[in-house]
Amino acid sequence: MPAQTHVTATINGEPVQFLCEPRQSLLECLRDILGMTGTKEGCNDGNCGSCTIVFDGRIVTSCLVLGVEARGKEISTIEGIARGNRLHPLQQAFLENAALQCGICTPGFIVAAKALLDQEPEPDEERIRFWLANNLCRCTGYDKIVRAVEQAAAVCKQEAAR
Amino acid sequence: MKWFDYECPRTVEAAVGLLSAPGRKVRALAGGTDLLVQLRAGRREADLVVDIKEIGELNELRLDSSGLTIGAAVPCYRIYNDPAICRAYPGLIDAVSLIGGTQIQGRASLGGNLANAAPSADAVPILIALGAQCLIAGPGGPRSLPVEDFCVAPGRNALAPGELLVSIHLAPPLPGSGAAYLRFIPRNEMDIAVVGAGASVVLKGNVFAAARIALASVAPVPLFVADAGDSLIGKPVDEASINAAAEIARAAAKPITDMRGTAEYRRHLCGVMTRRAIARAIARGKETN
Ligand SMILES: Cc1cc2nc3c(=O)[nH]c(=O)nc-3n(C[C@H](O)[C@H](O)[C@H](O)COP(=O)(O)OP(=O)(O)OC[C@H]3O[C@@H](n4cnc5c(N)ncnc54)[C@H](O)[C@@H]3O)c2cc1C
Ligand code: FES
Ligand code: FES
Questions:
Q1: Which ligand neighbours the alpha carbon of A52 most closely?
Q2: Taking each helix axis from N to C terminus, what angle separates B263-288 and B239-252, rounded to the nearest 10 degrees?
Q3: Confidence class of residue B260 from pLDDT cuts 50, 70 and 90?
């Protein structure tokens, strides 16, 4: 059995360590080693965005990151989005707008959309659609997803004003 | 993916040492958006992957009086998030903002786009049009190479074994200069160029003082059409000059037929996209005149 690499990272604010092979993707490490199965695998080649996480401050497709690259990095995943027992406005808006059917794409859309709203509180529809171009959905037809992001943006803005 | 070893050197020298390891299949890893896909699909092999993202020079992004230096591992988003670079090199910004989507742009580097040597690579035509130079380190010492000589065949670049692309350098923009990159794809985002056209011009009043044109996806490598740019020099800035240059680009293209379009369709698009890229470059040149 060839040597495994020891990786320490911060995931959703918590220090985490794991052992992995250099060839394993960060997506595999999250799901199969750490049991964090909220992040989904669709294509495994960077196209679908269902494996989106925040890595070192940027959204990336975790299927195209090696687990060993996570050494010393800050990572956030879908598991870190809810505020304790309360859903994040994006999660609530996806439910209310029926912005999901099978749900495989949903964690990726929510992580990507949150990164947008964190940096731009009032994106217009075009901005939302281009920002989310790396996220594919085979079920909803996208309109409901865009509406949900717009609704969540409005809620986040109200919260910030309070 | 097959087993490989992983190293993450901190210096160019250490990386060159690893890349020169005798008898091993070694690959540099920047953003991994080409490499990891290819390793997984078995289209490339490696028994050692050398992560080059922790090397200072490869992360440098510096705009000063000598121009713009882009470390080979700098991801696209860092380039378009810099307002001064956006103002100085809008043609480059065209290309880096349409590679993949947000997630890919968070990782994909210009160095990787070049070194991967795909005929369709979106950053390469505009780098050629802007006259970029590649700075290379290797066991035989440093050297530089004009970007148009960097890609030699589909998937093959001019690097010798053990060599590493360190950075890409662009000269400071001249007064009256403008550049643009345009890509034709059947959708708005996330597809491979059917045809891409990069153009840069330098205007002196109503005359072209210099021009360079390059194309994506119409030949085995990104195609520098020197004649098309040269034809503009000394000519008035008008439709006749632009059309003549676009016709030279169209005639120089050697496209193939594939699922994204026939050779004939691509040739036609070469003319159209070249015209539009020159027109946009001119509009930008007038703003800086
Ligand atoms: C979903 C998706 C969409 C994409 N869309 C586009 C697109 O629209 N346009 C486009 O042009 N491309 C696109 N690509 C391809 C890819 O993202 C780009 O080519 C990208 O710029 C590659 O950069 P990287 O840093 O990820 O390279 P890597 O994958 O890390 O490396 C690519 C190759 O270059 C070599 N290499 C990297 N850096 C160096 C160096 N400094 N010295 C020597 N060799 C080096 C590697 O060994 C490897 O062979 C897409 C890819 C995906 C997965
Ligand atoms: S699984 Fe990573 S992008 Fe599809
Ligand atoms: S809800 Fe099924 S893929 Fe988006």
A1: 2
A2: 140
A3: confident
In this structure, the residues whose C-beta lies within 6 A of any atom of ligand 3 are A 100-105, 137-140
**Are residues A76 and A97 both part of a single domain?**
no
Residues A73 and A105 in one domain: no
- The residue range of the domain holding B30 is 5-51
B116 pLDDT more than 70: yes
Domain boundary among B51, B73, B89: B51
ipTM value for the complex: 0.96
Residue B77: band (very low, low, confident or very high) from pLDDT cuts 50, 70, 90: very high
Q: Ligand 2 mean position to A27 CA, how many Å? A: 9
State which H helix or E strand residue B136 sits in.
strand B133-137
Q: Is the distance from the beta carbon of residue B18 to the nearest atom of ligand 1 less than 6 Å?
A: no
Q: Which ligand is nearest to the CA of A135?
A: 2
Q: What is the pTM of this model?
A: 0.96
Helices (H), B81-201: 83-88, 90-96, 102-105, 110-115, 123-129
Whether B35 and B42 have beta carbons less than 8 Å apart is answered as no
